[in-house]
Every structure is written in C-alpha cells, then in structure tokens.
Amino acid sequence: MRQLIFLGTAFLLTAASGSFAAPLARAVPGQAAPSDQATPGEVAGDAAALRRADLAEFRSTFLEQDRSYSAAARAEAEARLTRLEKDAAGLTAAAFELELARIVALADNGHTACFAGPRSRRFDRIPLRLEPFGERFFVLRATAPLADLLGAELTGIDGHAMADLRAAARSLQGGVPSHRDRSAAYLFESPDQLFALGLAKAPDAAVYRFATPGGVVERRITADPPDADRGRANADRWLFPERMSGEGEAWRSLLPLDKAPEALRQPDEPYRRRAAPELDALVVELRQNDGDGIQRFLTETTRAIREARPKNLVLDLRLNGGGDLNNTRDFAESLPALVPGRVFVLTSPWTFSAAISTVGYLKQKAPARVTIVGEAVGDRLVFFAEGRPVGLANSGIILAPATQRHDYRNGCREFTDCHGAVVRHPIAVPSLDPDIAAPWTIEAYRAGRDPGLEAIAAALGKSPAAPAATSGR
To answer: Which pLDDT score, from 0 to 100, does residue 145 have?
Structure first.
C-alpha cells in the first residue's frame, strides 16, 4: 500500500477547502496534438484519436477498477469524462491532463491519484522548490539567481491570492486537505499548468509574490522547459538540505546541511536508529515500509533495544509514505513490551498509507502507553487503497486506482470489501490524532530545531540536547 509520493465552460469541483472552478486553456489551432507529453515514437497519428485511445484506457484500467468513488461522485466523473471525450482534441496538453486529474480527485480518496510528480516532468517548472508548513508555502530550495527568496512565503501568483491557488491545487488530488497540499507545489511551480487553469497570464513565466522579512517582493520568474530526467524524488525530499543527484552546483538550500536536525539527514537511508540519552530513549526512523533490508533492520533494532535497555522509545514515521503494512505490524505491536517507560510515535501529513497502519497497530496495542506526537497523519481512518499504478500510453499520465477498503475505526466489521490483511489483523482505534501537537514550523525548520523531539523532551520533563551520532541500518 504505497503512493509511488476546461472545456468551453467552467466545471465546479467541491474540494476539502471549498470550491474551485475555472475554464482550462484550449490549444492554439494546429497545436492540439498531445505530442509534447508523449515519448519519441508515440507522437504520430491524429491527436483526437490518440486522446480518445487514452481516455478509453482510462475508463477500463482506472475508472472501472477503482472502488473509492461515491455514487454521486462517480456519476459526476462519468459526465465530465464524456465531455472530455468530446472536446479533448481542442485542449492544450496541460488542460487535458489537469481535467483528468480533477476527474480522479472527485473520488476524494488519497490513494486514488493522478500523480503530480510525473506530470511535473512533462511541463515547465520554475527553478525554486516550495514546501507546505501548515497551509503556508515557503521556498526551501532555489537556484543561485533566486537564492534571495530562500525562506520567503508564497503569497500570490499573477494577482491570484493563495486561497484561490490552494483551492485549485486541491482540486487535482483527493483526500484530506493536508494530503492534497503535499502535491500543490507541483502546480505552483509550473506556469504552464497555472495558465491552463486560468491562474497565470502566460504559459512560460509568471509574477510570483512573496512575503519576506524585508517586505513584499514580486518577481517575474521564467520557467525551465519540460525535462524527463528532472528529479524523481517524492515531494518531501525538498525538506532535506542535502543536494539531490542531478541538481548541480547552482542550487541552494534554506537549511544548511550542518544545521539540519538528525531527522532531516541522510535522505537516501530508508531506516535509521540512534541513541537519544537526553530522552533515555532509542529513536527509530522508518521512512518507508518496504525495501529489501527492512526485515533485517527491524530484527537488528529489536536486538539493539534489548541490549541497550532504554527506558523510552521513539518511532519516527513523519516522512514515511507507506509500503507493505505486513512488514511492520509485528514490530510495532512488540514495542510496548520492549521498554519499561513510554513509547512515542512521531507523525505528520507525510505519514501515509502503510505508515498509518503501523501507527494504528502500535496505538491499538497499548493505548495508555503510546503517545502520538506531531501533526495528524495524511489520511482518514477509513480509506481505499491497494490498486496498481497504470500509465496511459500516449500521454504518459500515471494513475492509481484504489480497489480495497481499509477501516481503522471499526476494524472492518461493517464492510465486506476490506483488504484481506486488515480483515485478518484488524485495527480499531477512536483516533490517530496527535496526543501532543508539535507541528514543524518554518521558524523551527530555519533554526534547525526538531519540534517533535522537543515536545517529547517536555513531556518527559527533560531538556532537549544534541542527538547522538547515527548508528547503522
């Protein structure tokens, strides 16, 4: 269970934050072909035929397979798909894909997705990277000519306020608002996509407005062209100051590497653990729930806990986008018996899919001793998942249908369509909201502080200190 993280008249989509409606851009006559999205060898033929073929594939491999739509949402999706089939050849490539994303988002399910990351490589993108802190977006990375914007808060684009921009972004992804916002920057960073939604005046550049300590700054920023080799990491990768492969020397980060807290170091390590003597604890980080080495790591971690005999334990799942829930279930349920004190689990909106299952198994095992710290996880207690990603042959659009229910509120007792693993090993918890709120604010990020560990230290009556060196996988 892993997240691989318009037409001639306006359509209305009711998103979690309200509603957003805007006409999408039509292609200039003679430029309707979706060839700017297709790979070499796929651009020949009539544009309308290519798009009709993709939409037929969308119906059969996605819409007919997904089980997350309500009856009303499915009816609207069918109606909008029919309109798209009639008018698709006249739309720009961005308009075509964004309307498909809006149809997918009608399911209002986080795992039902038209992936924004792959989309970002098919369209232009400005040379800075934005990340959400709450509902506010800040520049965390930029190329050298834009480095003065590091740490600035985005407050508008081409005269459009953030409320409208956020509503537009949330119309492209289902799920809770915080999960929808994890993909929003892919839209904000692309004038081509913004132009298709009527939110930019040109498809290759836009005037971005920022709030900085020195006041309001407006900058017209020209986008880089589409790039199939552009960074393929999940959106949370921009939180780590370490330079990504392929970024080049021009890129700068708001947070210097030597100031980064331990949780934002070694981005390519999926599992880590370290002693935290200031908390009388061992800290275990799981950034994914799969991988060839996960069982070895969990076995070695269990042995390390028994040998070190810490009083408390911290399980950090804040940057865990999921995987296979079966991999961590036994480990999570064993933790309360391994330490005599408290078990803390750190969560955030990036905590998704199988990571949520892991939190559920742990909290269910020992509700009085397990304390959730941080921010709410990135999905509801009832959601659909388990579909396999599918790609549309001509446009390259990547989709994920969701085919099986997960019910962590009542243990799937009321449903017959639940995923087999959670039927055999049910989760029934009243809530997975934090017991102690500790959001990662831009102020804490800029200072290199870890609010989650600070909150745990306060709960234990201790003072936070510099963490010990990281131990092995």
So the answer is: 97
